[in-house]
C-alpha cells in the first residue's frame, strides 16, 4: 500500500497541462492496484487515465476473468453516453485513417428552440432518436459519431461524392419523416448537413464539411450542402428534393 500512496502523491504533483504524463501516472497506479487485486481502485484510476489519454491506455497484470471489465471501460471511453453513438474521442482516434470516406457534419436545426419550448428532457430524447435514425440510414462500413452538442459526424465510404450526398440526404429525410409528435405534440425536428468528398487530408475534409454545413444553414436549413462543379449546391429535404446553387 505504501507504493500506491507514493504513486498517488506523484499523480497529484503532475500538472493538468501535461495529459501524457497524467495518463502514464494514472495508468501506473491502476496497474499497481490491479496487481494487488483491488479492482475497484484499479478501475477508478483507469477511468482517470482514459479521461486524460489521447490514445487508449493499457493496464498490465490484469487476469483473464477481469479483462472484460477493462474492455467495458474502453468501450465506454469511445461511446457517447446519451446517444449510444461513437463519441469525439473515437472520431479523433480513427480520423487519420479515413482516407476513403466522405465526411458529413450534421447539425439539428433550431435545437435551442426545442430545449426552450419543450425542455431539456425532450431535447435529450430528440438527440437519442436522431442518433439512432442517422445510424440506421448508413451503409456498411459507415459510422456516426456525436461531435458535440447537437452536432454529429457521418463517415461514409462512397465511390463518389454524389453517392455520399444521397446517403446523407436520405438520413435527413428519415429524420424529418420520424413521427416526432409521438415524442411531444407540436414537436418537429430537421437537420442540416455539409458533405465533403473523400479527397485530401481527413482533418481538412472535416473542417470543410463544417464550413459547408453553415452554407446549408444560410440556404434555408433542412438540407444538405455539397460542392459540385466548383459551386456549393444545396439539396433541400422539405421542398421537393430540389437542388439549387448557393448564393
Classified in CATH, the superfamily of the largest domain is Reverse transcriptase/Diguanylate cyclase domain
**What is the top-level CATH class of the largest domain?**
Alpha Beta
CATH topology of the largest domain: Alpha-Beta Plaits
Shape: globular
Provide a count of the helices: 9
Q: How many beta-strand runs?
A: 7
Q: Per DSSP, what share of the residues sits in E-state strands of 2 or more residues?
A: 15-25%
Largest beta-sheet details: 7 strands, mixed
**Structural class of the secondary structure composition?**
alpha+beta
Query: What's the pLDDT, averaged over the residues?
Result: 79
* Structural domains: how many: 2
Radius of gyration: 22 Å
Q: Helix share of residues?
A: 40-55%
H/E element sequence: HHHHHEHHEEHEHEEE
User: Which CATH architecture of the largest domain is right?
Assistant: 2-Layer Sandwich
How far apart are the termini?
Answer: 68 Å
pLDDT < 50 runs, ≥5 residues: 1-18, 239-247
**Strand neighbour order, sheet with most strands:** 2-3-1-4-5-6-7
Amino acid at each position: 500500500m505504501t507504493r500506491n500512496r507514493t504513486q498517488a502523491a506523484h499523480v497529484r504533483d503532475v500538472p493538468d497541462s501535461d495529459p501524457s504524463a497524467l495518463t502514464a501516472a494514472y495508468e501506473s497506479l491502476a496497474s499497481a492496484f490491479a496487481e494487488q487485486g483491488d479492482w475497484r481502485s484499479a478501475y477508478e484510476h483507469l477511468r482517470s487515465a482514459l479521461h486524460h489519454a489521447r490514445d487508449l491506455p493499457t493496464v498490465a497484470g490484469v487476469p483473464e476473468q477481469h479483462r472484460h471489465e477493462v474492455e467495458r471501460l474502453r468501450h465506454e471511453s469511445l461511446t457517447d453516453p446519451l446517444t449510444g453513438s461513437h463519441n469525439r474521442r473515437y472520431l479523433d482516434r480513427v480520423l487519420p485513417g479515413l482516407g476513403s470516406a466522405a465526411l458529413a457534419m450534421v447539425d439539428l436545426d433550431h435545437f435551442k428552440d426545442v430545449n426552450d419550448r419543450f425542455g431539456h428532457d425532450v431535447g435529450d430524447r430528440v438527440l437519442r432518436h436522431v442518433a439512432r435514425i442517422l445510424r440506421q440510414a448508413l451503409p456498411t462500413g459507415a459510422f456516426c459519431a456525436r461531435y458535440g452538442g447537437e452536432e454529429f459526424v457521418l463517415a461514409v465510404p462512397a465511390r463518389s461524392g454524389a453517392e455520399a450526398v444521397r446517403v446523407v440526404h436520405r438520413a435527413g429525410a428519415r429524420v424529418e419523416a420520424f413521427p416526432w409528435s409521438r415524442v411531444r405534440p407540436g414537436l418537429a425536428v430537421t437537420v442540416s448537413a455539409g458533405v465533403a468528398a473523400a479527397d485530401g487530408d481527413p482533418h481538412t475534409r472535416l473542417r470543410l464539411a463544417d464550413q459547408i454545413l453553415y452554407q446549408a444553414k444560410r440556404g434555408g436549413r433542412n438540407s444538405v450542402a455539397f460542392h459540385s462543379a466548383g459551386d456549393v449546391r444545396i439539396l433541400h429535404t422539405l421542398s421537393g428534393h430540389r437542388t439549387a446553387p448557393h448564393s
